[in-house]
Amino acid sequence: MRSTAVFAKIGWFRMVYKPHSLWYNKSGNQFETKLRKCRRKGKRMKKQLLHTYRFVFLCMLIAVVGLCVVAGYSVRVLDQNQVIQQVDTNMEAAKVRLDRDAEASATMMEDLRNEYASKTRVVAMLLEEQKDWSSENETILEELRVVIDADQISVSNETGILIASTDFSSTGKRAYRAFLSHTTDPVFTDVVFTMQNDKPMILAASALGSGKGLIQVQYPAESMLTQSQENDVSAIVADMPFSDMGISAIIDTDTGKYVSHTQVERCGTASDYDESLFSGKKGKVDLLRQHQRYMIRYQTHENYILLVDIPYREMDNARGMVIKWVFASGLILLLVATLSMRMGYFYLKKKSPELFPKEPSNWAKQQKSKK
Hints:
This protein is an alpha+beta fold. It has helices at about 1-15, 35-125, 140-150, 220-230, 235-240, 310-315, 315-350, 360-370; strands spanning about 20-25, 30, 150-155, 160-165, 190-195, 200-205, 215-220, 245-250, 255-260, 280-290, 290-300, 305-310.
């Protein structure tokens, strides 16, 4: 009985486990050890391929996002530097034009002053000995007015009252206020550029000598207007805007008004900017208006502030396009890499089918049928 029991145990052990060849379950189906190894190896390979897919996908996705961030930042910095460089170059050219126009205006005014002073002095010398200003002698004034191309010639006495004039309505009025204190000067000549009824006017006066009064001549302002238009500061921004984007303007610090603006109708109106923003000779200021960020690049020149007001959104157009193209290219590369790895998987499955066995039960049945 004892030996029978031992034999039974040994036989049961042999039936359940054979270390070098076969496994047996309670149903009697046998599975070869090689199959189990292939199954485990196939599962490991599938997991490795899946992990590789994930790793490559995540790495390439991170790389694409990183490239988009770097490309966007680089393009933004380059665009800003390019805009600032263009603005600075145009502002330097505008400064040169401001200096040139100011010098030309000063020269023009000096030439006009000398020309009108000389004409007025000649008229005063011709009329210095005239004592009777009857209507007959007043024709002399009209002849002289035509000769010197003036609008009006008047004569005042030592009290500043106009006693004769080519414009009869002016007789009895006072001379221009700037000349009243010089009616008794033996030698005096001056030219004044002024405004009358919102129109420019050129007035010149010269003493008659010996305190007898003075000659007052009014000249047409067309020549001054022509020269002023040629040297008009308000046309600088229209002729040469500081940037293709945003608003360009020139502000007079003395009056706080625009003397030149991209929008012509704004010329002469009060500035929208606080002058405390422009503390240095040149710089950049960022402002937030209506939930949008603006870059203000400015330079100061004498009593002028030259500035450009550009929204960052306009400068970021190229940046957005670059990011889109980089992201699209990255997605294409990611798709190509994924398809390449999938093709590698199918190639490996076709090359080594034993690594990817079918269901064990079907394989076991096939082995049994062969035997």
